[in-house]
Task: structure prediction
Amino acid sequence: MLAGSLALVLLTVALSSVGPLLLQRVINDALPFRHVRELAVLCSAMIAAGILAGAAGISQGALANRMGQRVVHNLRVELYEHIQGMELAFFAGDANTEIQARLVSDIGGISDIVTLTAQSALASLASLITACVVMLILNWPLALASVALAMALNVVNQRFSARRNALASRRQEAIAVLMRLVAEDLSLPGVILGRTLGQTGRQRARFIETSSELSAVTYQQRLAGRSAMATINMTFACLPPIIYLMSGTVVPGISLGTAVVLATMQARLTNPIQQLLSISGTLQSSRAMFDRVFTYLTLGGPRDAAQPAATVPPGIPRLLMRAVTYRYPGAEQPALSGISLEFPPRSFTIVVGHSGSGKSTLALLAAGLLDPVSGDIQLEYPRAPGLGLTRTAVTLVPQDTVLFNTSIRQNLLFARPQASAAELAGVLRMASLGSLLARLPEGLDTPVGERGYQLSGGERQRIALARAMLSGSPVLIVDEATSALDGLTAEEIYRQLHQISLDRTVIMVAHRIPFLAVDDRVIVIADGRVIEQGRHGDLIRRRGAYHELAATQSIAAPQSIAAPPQF
Result:
């Protein structure tokens, strides 16, 4: 495609140069001597060359744009896939709006460079070379003088390139900040926060300040080098009269047609030079966008820990963690240290501990979303022991519920697009969502709104839980996914999790201890270490850390936990 585009550029430039050359013969021979036949032939040839040049230019533009958009599409997909594969710490450090700015705004700017600037640069360069060759053939002293002047003006223009580049970098940074403020302050949580705390004026002031800075930087960028460009334009405007003057005085022997063609070709020389100077400034300004995109593309470091997909062997696996340690980037102390645990097939295990003890980190590691600094995490299937974690084997319901701005049905089918209506009804029943669907006029096709805010917090959690149940993964990890539920609904959810543990390995992370069966497995974590583990009834009778943790929760006194309802 690039070769074809280049060939069309050369063809367009060649056809465009036919007109001025024929014009010389028209002025010197056909018109003065009234050679009608020759005049008709020359004029017809000029018209045909112009039409063909226009058609070639259209074809070249279409080909260049198609090529450029394919390149930009591939770059956008490559950047998306690269970012998607980064470990979770990357997303905690970089704001989502910064990622959006590079993926959409910066690559959008690169799109203009690739599709328009590259095309203009090819055409301008070819036109410049053609004009120089024609002028050298017609009169080499004037041609050399014109080229020398153009080179001198180019040096003047380059002085302003560095400043344009610096201003372009500042402008892209200001755009990213503005996008972040819009995403934060004009989202539903941001609006609620600003209004309830009476800080809407402060939000508006931050936006005005950032927008003002963006406007000022954009103004400076667009005016940078304007004085140099004005000087260049004025100089080129003076060249045709100078050629006419020199043709009649200091450079005798030039015919009228030659003088006119020289002036015409001077304009053909002027336009490409001006375009190349403008392109030079644009490329300098676009370096900031290229730098921001390729900074992300060249990011190394840890990648996504689990395999993106794999065929799950038959059976329910045993999840093993052997001497697992994890430290968050920049943290002085590890979040988890020396964790060795076993989660048997078809078991229900609850992981408890105070806030900050490392429960959620354990869930992320077990789901393969974090890669341990040391140690090993494996799945042991009856017929395929020692497998690493895979996306299709472990599903995590995180603390922060994620719903897409679409219908309830589409949110559920995100887990398994081919799920049947009966399967959808089954997971909705297990998540106690029957009453919700009964009062919604559109049922499963009801939109949930941005981030699911058309629903209550508890409803969002139950939809997320139903989606995870629908996935069919043999290991299900639930991290504080019932915190927004009332007591009765939460207990029903616990019942259903117990029920599905007959066919899966279920791990539940909870800050508050629910009513448990005597034989339920409990793991207590404190300061990143396992301090107790065993059956619920045994740990209560042991009167250790688990007993003390349960005693602090008013919903579950030790004496009531010792004899919980049986499931």
